[in-house]
């Protein structure tokens, strides 16, 4: 089912998303990969503030290419998500509601998503240029020294994603495989 959501991503919106839903996201999202995640966790461990509000937000695991003249960003394809798994539960515990990436997540992350009522979206790998067209504004807000891995605040319009793991723990990777195996036995 196709769904359109505006950020912030509240718990009410999350509970209406199911594994397999096609979703178009508009509003503000943030980017961060593993180096930035490590810095965020280090700040939390020191009791310091994060460079952005994390509650009810979405983090897109992406290291975009430089913008061409006249564009807000270059290609913006997803990064493999398990690289953030050791950091993710702590961010979910303080209110992160959505993540966008590609690939599987650990059981620890899935359990934390269920506990914190969060969702994991998949973006299409290999469609980085297309995804980049959904980004209408980009600004670096932290860790500029990380280059493409700096934290960016993005404004997106109709960013296409798929719910891979919903807040109940339903996992499209497992559901899809099970459905395929059932169909192949017919």
Defining traits:
186 residues; alpha/beta; fumarase; five-stranded mixed beta barrel; 6 helices; globular
CATH architectural name: Alpha-Beta Barrel
Mean pLDDT: 92
Report the uncertain regions. none
CATH homologous superfamily placement = Fe-S hydro-lyase, tartrate dehydratase beta-type, catalytic domain
Strand content: 25-35%
- The CATH topology label is fumarase
Whole-Å distance between the termini? Answer: 26 Å
Please estimate the helix content. Answer: 25-40%
Gross geometry: globular
Query: How many structurally independent domains?
Result: 1
Strand order of the largest sheet: 2-3-4-5-7
* Major sheet summary line: 5 strands, mixed, barrel
- Please give the CATH class: Alpha Beta
Counted beta strands: 7
Q: Give me the number of helical elements.
A: 6
Order of helices and strands: EHEHEHEHEHEEH
Radius of gyration over alpha carbons? 16 Å
Class from helix and strand fractions: alpha/beta
Model description:
The protein has 186 residues and is an alpha/beta fold. It has a single domain, classed as fumarase (Alpha-Beta Barrel). It contains six helices and seven strands. Strands 2-3-4-5-7 form a five-stranded mixed β-barrel. The longest helix is centred in the C-terminal third of the chain and has 13 residues. The model has no long low-confidence stretch (mean pLDDT 92).
């Amino acid at each position: 089912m196709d769904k359109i959501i505006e950020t912030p991503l509240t718990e009410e919106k999350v509970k209406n998303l199911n594994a397999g839903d096609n979703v178009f996201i508009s509003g503000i999202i943030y980017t961060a990969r593993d180096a930035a995640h490590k810095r965020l966790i280090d700040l939390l461990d020191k009791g310091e503030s994060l460079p952005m509000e994390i509650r009810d937000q979405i983090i897109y695991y992406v290291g975009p290419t430089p913008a061409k003249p006249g564009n807000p960003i270059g290609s913006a394809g997803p990064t493999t998500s398990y690289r953030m798994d050791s950091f993710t539960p702590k961010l979910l515990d303080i209110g992160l509601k959505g993540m966008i990436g590609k690939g599987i997540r650990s059981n620890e992350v899935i359990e934390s998503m269920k506990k914190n009522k969060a969702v994991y979206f998949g973006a299409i790998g290999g469609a980085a240029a297309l995804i980049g067209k959904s980004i209408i504004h980009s600004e670096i807000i932290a860790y500029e020294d990380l280059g493409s891995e700096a934290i960016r605040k993005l404004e997106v319009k109709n960013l296409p994603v798929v719910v891979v793991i919903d807040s109940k723990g339903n996992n499209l990777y497992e559901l899809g495989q099970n459905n395929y195996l059932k169909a192949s036995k017919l």
